[in-house]
Design a protein that fits this description.
The protein has 227 residues and is mainly β. Helix content is 14%, strand content 58%. It has an 8-stranded antiparallel β-barrel.
């Protein structure tokens, strides 16, 4: 008798779980409304933390033919993020954090090859919307900006076999340390796993010459986990 009762309970557990999941108020939630229900019932002020690792495909666009990078530089993109919900009415979050990101570019000028390494500490300032397809899977478009400070990097002149700091003020053709711009992208989350693609549009003139407009750009692909 006890074995039979235990077997019945084990068989009923999945049904009880489904009832608690899809009948929280004693009424069924149609599948098409479940993502809206879970979105609306998240508490305001709920936080998440995450780690990110990926790559950045950087470019430099400049009026100066010396600094204009017409080829992509591939670099590292690693950091951590923190997000907090802004309102209980919608799954809208503010996300920031700190990244180490390698931007820059490559070019050929007068037959000579150059490369520009621009390595930054970067803080994103993003507004993110989490659309929950179900309890485990979400689509997360976002937009906002970023602020960054150059911490390392070299300009390499391959023809003359010369290399010097990208931010060396003693060299006429160099870059300014501070940058900022817009970031647009979209991420997808599955349980704790997260994948994101974004693009940074530099708005600051990072060239030393005020008469030549020099801006950075970067396509970023990152993978990580959220807690």
């Amino acid at each position: 008798m006890k074995k039979a009762t235990l077997s019945i309970i084990l068989l009923l557990l999945p049904l009880l779980y489904a009832h608690a999941q899809y009948y929280p108020d004693g009424r069924p939630i149609p599948p098409r409304h479940r993502s809206e229900y879970y979105s609306q019932n998240r508490q305001i002020g709920s936080n998440y933390y995450g780690f990110r690792l990926g790559m950045a495909l950087g470019t430099v666009n400049s009026d100066s033919p010396y600094l204009d990078g017409n080829k992509v530089r591939t670099g590292l993109n690693v950091g951590f993020v923190i997000g907090t919900q802004l309102t209980a009415r919608a799954p809208l979050y503010f996300e920031s954090g700190l990244y180490y990101i390698e931007k820059g570019g490559k070019s050929t000028y007068n037959g000579n090859k150059f490369s520009y390494a621009l390595d930054y500490l970067e803080a994103p300032l993003l507004i993110k919307y989490k659309y929950n397809v179900d309890q485990d899977f979400s689509i997360q478009p976002f937009m906002g900006g970023y602020l960054s400070c150059g911490v390392a990097g070299k300009i390499k002149d391959f023809a003359n076999r010369e290399a010097y700091s990208s931010y060396d003020s003693d060299v006429d053709q160099h870059f300014r340390r501070f940058d900022g711009g817009l970031r647009l992208g979209c991420g997808v989350g599955f349980d704790m796993l997260y994948l994101e693609a974004s693009y940074d549009i530099g708005l600051a003139n990072v060239g030393n010459d005020d008469f030549d407009d020099t801006r950075t750009g970067s396509f970023n692909l990152t993978f990580g986990v959220n807690f």
